[in-house]
């Protein structure tokens, strides 16, 4: 009526058209009554077939999930992460639509627990509900709770978790910073500290590289990484010779203890070399080969080499016999 009052042109319906509109309205009312009867019939049957699942998400959504999966056993075997995507229309359609913040707008999305929640917490609520639905389906499959008490307790847990998600975060009071401790900084001095600072100070070459002559183009080189590096005033003249004194304080140095340790190692290595190598004159040394008579006699004194001594005696006897 408000739309008719705002319109500038009012159209008066004929009797036949008005009767058709009334018939359409009566058909809509009859369809609504049929849907109410079907939902009540399904709720009565599902209260006996799967009471815990229907207690959580309602009989209508339960029937839709059972039709999508095929049976209660398949619903209990379905992973909880796949429950929200059951019944999504965009998966079967070829036209691309804007999914928005939530893509899984399936049967679980339209249940009473989730449909009226803000979209910021809708994903978390769907995860919680889908996990409890799978647990309730397994309980209904085993028929361990026919009254649906476990499903009601699960629904109460879900509502408590959703209330926690809806509550705003606690206001944290601004905490004052602690009072700074005013203490004098420790400053060292002395010869050792000065030497250490000299080793890490900027060299004259680096200082000259950071400077540029006015009105002159500086020389540059390509480093190992392929980048161009300017040399500044570190080079002068056409020949490009370095005219900066190199600071020797930045060279690598050894401590006194390291120098003493290396000297000791050299001395010990020299002593070991003298101990291992012995010099001898082969002319003055006696013949100590295995074929010499002295060596054979010393071997013959051993009880294990008596046979060799007998052979030597026989050789001597044959040498003494006269030759004809």
From TrEMBL:
Task: State if DNA-binding is listed as a keyword.
Answer: no
User: Where is it located?
Assistant: Nucleus
Domain named Nop: which ranges?
Answer: 49-167
SUPFAM superfamilies from the entry? Nop domain (SSF89124)
What keywords does the record list, in alphabetical order? Nucleus, Ribonucleoprotein
Residues in the signal sequence:
none
Q: Which GO terms describe its cellular component?
A: precatalytic spliceosome; U4 snRNP; U4/U6 x U5 tri-snRNP complex
Note the PROSITE patterns from the entry: NOP
| GO biological process: one example | spliceosomal tri-snRNP complex assembly
Q: Which PANTHER family match?
A: PRE-MRNA SPLICING FACTOR PRP31 (PTHR13904), U4_U6 SMALL NUCLEAR RIBONUCLEOPROTEIN PRP31 (PTHR13904:SF0)
| Name of the protein in its database record | Nop domain-containing protein
Question: What broad taxonomic lineage does this protein's source fall under?
Answer: Eukaryota, Fungi, Dikarya, Ascomycota, Saccharomycotina
């Amino acid at each position: 009526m408000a739309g008719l009052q705002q319109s500038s042109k009012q159209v008066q319906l004929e009797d036949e058209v008005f009767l058709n509109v009334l018939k359409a309205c009566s058909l809509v009312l009859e369809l609504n009554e049929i849907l109410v009867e079907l939902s009540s019939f399904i709720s009565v049957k599902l209260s006996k077939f799967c009471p815990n699942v229907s207690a959580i998400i309602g009989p209508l959504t339960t029937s839709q999930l059972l039709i999508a999966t095929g049976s209660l056993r398949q619903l209990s075997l379905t992973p909880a992460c796949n429950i929200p995507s059951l019944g999504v229309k965009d998966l079967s359609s070829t036209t691309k639509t804007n999914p928005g913040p939530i893509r899984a707008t399936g049967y679980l999305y339209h249940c009473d627990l989730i449909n009226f929640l803000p979209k910021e917490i809708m994903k978390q609520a769907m995860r919680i509900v889908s996990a409890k639905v799978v647990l309730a389906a397994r309980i209904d499959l085993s028929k361990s709770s026919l009254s649906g008490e476990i499903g009601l307790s699960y629904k109460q847990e879900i509502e408590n978790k959703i209330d926690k998600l809806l509550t705003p975060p606690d206001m944290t009071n601004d905490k004052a910073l602690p009072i700074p401790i005013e203490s004098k900084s420790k400053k060292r001095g002395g010869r050792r500290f000065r030497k250490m600072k000299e080793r890490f100070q900027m060299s004259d070459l680096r200082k000259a590289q950071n400077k540029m002559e006015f009105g002159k183009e500086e020389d540059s080189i390509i480093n190992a990484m392929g980048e161009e590096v300017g040399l500044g005033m570190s080079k002068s003249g056409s020949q490009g010779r370095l005219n900066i004194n190199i600071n020797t304080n930045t060279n690598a140095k050894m401590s006194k203890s390291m120098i003493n340790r290396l000297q000791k190692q050299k001395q010990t290595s020299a002593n070991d070399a003298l101990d291992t190598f012995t010099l001898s004159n082969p002319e003055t040394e006696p013949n100590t080969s295995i074929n010499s008579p002295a060596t054979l006699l010393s071997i013959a004194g051993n009880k294990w080499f008596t046979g060799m001594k007998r052979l030597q005696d026989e050789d001597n006897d044959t040498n003494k016999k006269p030759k004809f």
